[in-house]
Specification:
The complex is a heterodimer of chains A (416) and B (334). With 416 residues, chain A is mainly α. Chain A has 17 helices and six strands. Chain A has a two-stranded antiparallel ribbon with strand order 1-6. Chain A has a two-stranded antiparallel ribbon with strand order 2-5. Chain A has a two-stranded antiparallel ribbon with strand order 3-4. In chain A, α12 runs antiparallel to α14 and α14 packs parallel to α15. The longest helix of chain A is centred in the middle third of the chain and has 37 residues. In chain A, 34% of the residues are buried. Chain B has 334 residues and is an all-alpha fold. Chain B is 80% helix and 0% strand. In chain B, α5 runs antiparallel to α10 and α7 packs across α8. Classes of the chains: A mainly alpha (416), B mainly alpha (334).
Chain lengths: 416, 334
């Protein structure tokens, strides 16, 4: 046993796969200990907030301010409001308005805005612009308002008795706050999803649930496959014929179709994560059964098995002591593959809307399903679907690497 | 020829048996589940309906329609007769339309998308795998990790990424549908061009997935064959390399054909999900609408059709395999 493990860990592929998998597993276990948020808690009002650091505006106004004289602060401020594309749009409008192109310099912000303020009139209907473009120009005009001003902003509060605004403080353009001193700062490394939930927290929990689904599905599938394979291979005869008949049937009837039929029949209410996992297991045992049977048949008449039989050992003893050790490596490899294909099957089912019911736990498939239903991929909200796909790919990739690594060790024909 | 006929009849018998059991499963599975499917449908339909006699009437109507109040065996033959006549009843979610009508409008899209994609993927994959085994070195080092990665990548993930890159960011190809939403199906050039353009993304994402798995399999088969004794013997005999490689790849191809027959079910499953992501008007999207609408007859019909398609594809591949592999004829005529 120890020797086998040593051998396995000498395979580069296995070690890489193992490390990726362990890193995922550690994250799944450690993250909830550090961050105790509810993974399905809705924190954002609105859909698909961008990844980033969210600083409370109210708290930062009340924090201590520092004055920093930074050189390009004004330029940055203008650039964030007025992009190059918007400058070109302004130029286009001004040219259509009648100002010759040679007089317009889009690099000179002050002059451009002066020309714009002089010419733009929202009630003017210039030819050659669609209605949507006209509305965009009106919005742009509003955004430009006060862009070049250098005066301070005034923070005022309403007097509760008189209802009059009273000045509390001023915010000048050189005021800064230290983020560490602001009471409420929330880091959303992957933003929020369509329901306004923190994607990272949700993703970690979903990875955990999906791994559990994969594990249960894998164990069920391997359990059924191993039992049937052993029975068919070792006992043989009529039992073998019956089992092989069933196995051959399920080899050609697509498992995915069975999965759809069963999940649909169970109904939305009783479809928990475990139920789905068991169903996946029940539809994917075929390959294990076939391979185990083939190996058992080749082992059945070996000398050590015959010796065991002569010594009067029972069938169970022979299977456990003389046959299982020979196929153990294969069964473990099959289990790994079943886990990874179970995770994929869950994701596929969820995309079809047949995944676990949605109120209790997130799974990777459900997250993808939500992102697709809310058109995250078309809207360019990459943080809603890409991390999920990458996680699924990492899980299956690491498991297949482990599998290939083990295959090369246990299967001498593949050694190079 | 006698041997081949025996093989053919054997496979045909198997095809009939699996078809029968698939049909049986399709019939039994939904009925085995706890709860009355008709009651579930009626409760969905009757949401917001407070009139008890009205609900009762709907229930009675559907119970008659499905024949759920008759004995199981009678139901089975009723179902068998209806399906044989191509009558799957009415679709719930698209009510006045019959299920057979819904399926007729989507099945051609699926067949024209999936089977060419799977075959092209299989051909490219096998060529790449064989080249990797023969050339080794840099080409192998480049192709293998790529294939391993592609074959492990979930089909839907590939579809989404293709769509985002080529459809949303680069805007080269349309992201959804089977043809432009402003067109009515006809035989004008504009329509055909639109169909071709919409075809590309789903097609290539299915092809990419198929390539990976096939390339890996073909590579290891070819490496195994290249080290076989007959290759060494042929070399000693002075047979030209080109001719030996012809033998090697023919032998390595054979297990790959069986592999295709066995994996076609899984591939179709992945491809159905890819269809959904591209809103391609095929059977995959039909399943989605059926699931969303709780459309019981449509689901059962679509799954049956997909099973029949996969079984038929399987049968055809095995028949072809019998023609190609000389050992089969030899084994059967003993």
């Amino acid at each position: 046993m120890k020797h086998t493990l040593q051998q396995v860990f000498h395979s580069g592929k296995f070690v890489i796969g193992f490390c990726i998998f362990m890193a995922l597993l550690l994250t799944v276990f450690l993250y909830p200990l550090l961050i105790k948020d509810n993974p399905l808690g809705i924190i954002a009002q609105g859909t698909f907030f961008q990844p980033g650091i969210y600083v409370n505006v109210y708290d930062s106004l009340n924090s201590q301010t520092y004055t920093l004289k930074l050189q390009n602060a004004a330029a940055k401020r203008i650039a964030s409001k007025l992009s190059d594309q918007e400058r070109l749009d302004m130029q286009e409008w001004l040219v259509a308005y009648g100002i010759p192109e040679s007089e317009i310099d889009i690099a000179d912000t002050e002059k451009l805005i002066a020309q714009w303020d002089g010419a733009f009139d929202s009630s003017l209907n210039l030819p050659g612009f669609t209605n949507a473009e006209r509305n965009a120009y009106i919005r742009l005009d509003r955004a430009l308002d006060g862009l070049l001003s250098t005066e301070a902003l005034i923070i005022a509060a309403q007097n509760p008795e008189t209802g009059v605004l009273e000045q509390k403080s001023e915010v000048t353009q050189t005021d800064y706050v230290n983020v560490n001193q602001v009471a409420n700062v929330r880091v959303l490394p992957l933003g929020t999803d369509n329901f306004g939930r923190d994607i990272l927290t949700e993703l970690v929990r979903a990875t955990g649930v999906s791994l559990q689904i994969g594990l249960v599905a894998g164990l069920v599938a391997t359990g059924i496959g191993l039992t049937l394979g052993l029975l068919a291979g070792y006992i043989g005869g009529l039992l073998d014929d019956i089992i092989m008949f069933i196995t051959n049937l399920f080899t050609v009837i697509p498992g995915f179709v069975l999965l759809i039929l069963i999940s649909f029949s169970i109904g939305q209410e009783s479809r928990g994560a475990t139920t789905i996992a068991v169903v996946i297991g029940f539809t994917s045992w075929v390959w294990t059964a076939r391979a185990v049977r083939a190996q058992v048949i080749s082992l059945r008449h070996r000398d050590h098995v015959n010796l065991s039989k002569l010594s009067g050992h029972s069938i169970v003893q022979i299977i456990i002591n003389d046959i299982l050790p020979y196929i153990a490596s294969y069964v473990v490899m099959a289990l790994i593959l079943q886990i990874s294909s179970g995770i994929l099957a869950e994701a596929g089912l969820s995309i079809l809307g047949l995944g676990p019911r949605t109120t209790e736990v997130p799974t990777l498939g459900l997250m993808l399903n939500w992102a697709l239903i809310y058109q995250a991929h078309v809207l360019g909200k990459w943080w809603a679907y890409l991390p999920v796909i990458v996680t699924i790919a990492l899980i299956t990739f690491s498991m297949n690497l482990m599998n290939t690594g083990m295959d090369q060790i246990f299967n001498p024909a593949l050694r190079e | 020829m006698k041997g081949y006929r025996k093989y053919f009849l054997n496979k045909l018998g198997w095809f009939a048996i699996t078809l029968f059991f698939a049909f049986l499963l399709n019939f039994i599975l939904p009925r085995l589940m706890p709860g009355d499917p008709v009651a579930a449908i009626v409760s969905r339909l009757a949401q917001g309906m407070s009139n008890a006699t009205g609900v009762q009437a709907i229930y009675q109507q559907y119970a008659d329609l499905f024949g759920t109040n008759r004995p199981m065996l009678e139901q089975f033959f009723l179902y068998l007769r209806n399906v044989a006549q191509g009558d799957f009843g009415f679709s719930f979610s698209q009510y006045p339309r019959a299920v057979s009508d819904v399926i007729r409008s989507s099945i051609l899209w699926t067949i024209c998308l999936q089977f060419p994609a799977i075959i092209v993927g299989w051909l490219i994959g096998n060529t790449l795998g064989a080249l990797a085994a023969y050339l080794r070195g840099g080409f192998d080092k480049f192709i293998m990790p790529l294939s391993i990665f592609a074959s492990n990548f979930p089909a839907f993930g590939m579809a989404i990424i293709f769509m985002v890159i080529f459809g949303v960011i680069l805007k080269w190809l349309p992201t959804s549908g089977g043809y432009g939403f402003d067109l009515i199906p006809n035989f004008s050039w504009e329509f055909i061009w639109s169909v071709i353009v919409h075809y590309q993304l789903p097609f290539w994402s299915i092809v990419t997935i198929a390539i990976g798995g096939q390339a890996i399999g073909m590579r290891s088969m070819s490496i195994y064959e290249l080290n076989a004794d007959y290759v060494k013997f042929s070399r000693f005999m002075g047979i030209k390399d080109r001719k030996i490689i012809g033998y090697v790849f023919r032998n390595a191809m054979l297990p790959q054909i069986t592999g295709l027959a066995l994996s076609i079910g899984t591939m179709v499953g992945g491809a159905l999900v890819a269809e959904i992501i591209f809103s391609y008007p095929g059977l995959g999207s039909t399943i989605l609408t059926a699931v969303m609408g709780g459309d019981y007859p449509l689901i059962s019909a679509v799954t049956l059709i997909i099973t029949i398609m996969v079984l038929a594809a399987n049968f055809i591949i095995e028949i072809l395999y019998g023609v190609i592999d000389p050992r089969i004829k030899a084994a059967q005529s003993d």
